[in-house]
# Entry
Amino acid sequence: MNPDEIRSTFFDFFGDRGHLLLPPSSVVSSDDSLLFTNAGMNQFRPYYLGERPPPHRRLMSSQPCVRTVDIDNIGYTTRHSTSFEMLGNFAFSDYFKLESMSWALKLLTDGFGLDRDRLWVTVFSTDDESFVLWQKLGFPTDRIQRLGIEDNYWSMGVPGPGGPNSELFYDRGPSFGRSGGPSVNSERYLELWNLVFMQDVRGNSDEEILGPLPGRHVDTGLGLSRLQLVLSGGRHVQELDPLLPKVRELTGSSSPSVRIVVDHLRTSLLLLDAGVAPGNDGRSYVLRRLLRRAMRHLHLLGVTDPVLGQLIGHPLVSREERAFTRTLVRGQNILQRALDRGSLPVELVFKLHETHGFPVELTEEIARERGFKVDRAGFDTLMASHRSRS
Ligand code: GLY
# Structure
């Protein structure tokens, strides 16, 4: 199935069950507590909190999201990406656990044709109700796992609505590693769908619950590319991206760096389309960092000509490339020489950053690859005293 077919299958299914389709919000969050839209439910936050009534008790959407927390895993795992599209069904003081679970199961198996025997689920460690409901839906007990707050509690990562969740996984088989379910292997057991049972007002952390929400609500997120990957039998999520063959051809490589370039270009395009320009803080810096990482990985693959701008046809990217190429080459050379000598003094890290414009994040990354660690606290102290002097 292609993305259009997956979307329409999802919307037909939930449309038949009374859900109103809403357009996605911009990937640049209108919510100042977030840099980027990180889930389909972001735009519905006031409905969960009871600040405004929803336009309908059942909603559905397809939402482009950006999450950079896993940036270091991109290219090395098969499942991470810095941007993705999330399909979701949402309910406000309407249906709750049973319907969310049974519909997710039905759609994955009857709608998308996944083998029920390869599905696994997790529930929040104390959520006996969900455990029993999965059993009642005919799910074998040995494929239901309980996990803690890290895995099975969901919030936007900022104060607001939150709740325990239950996730559905697909077993991709032994070529993805050892058996034992999602609690032991997240590559083999690929998380497809997260069902969040919104019930709490979360404070500054997921451990800090301020009280109950005014109603019990549902928020779900199904990763479109992950589902497409499973349906196509592919391995890495970047394989689905039309940019991949172009980057492979350009570099003659299939290494993780190729997937990093593809991932970062895809997210950069999304941000550029949403009106973000590369710059030195906030959202603009995230974009700049993605482009610089993509450049570095192209250099690693031996492509030192400015090709990113051409690859995605964007003048801002070409400008960014022209501005950073010399810095990248010079900074890398200085850094490599130090690492070859076997030490990485914090003064050098600071000088690279401040004098040569070579970002500390990039130094950290390259150092880590060679088994060195940047003294980040020392760097921050040097930065602070430099700022106070100037
Ligand atoms: N809002 C559910 C999720 O992002 O997984």
Observations:
- The domain at 3-235 is CATH 3.30.930.10 (BirA Bifunctional Protein; domain 2).
- The pocket of glycine is lined by residues 39, 41, 154, 194, 196, 219, 221 (CB under 6 Å).
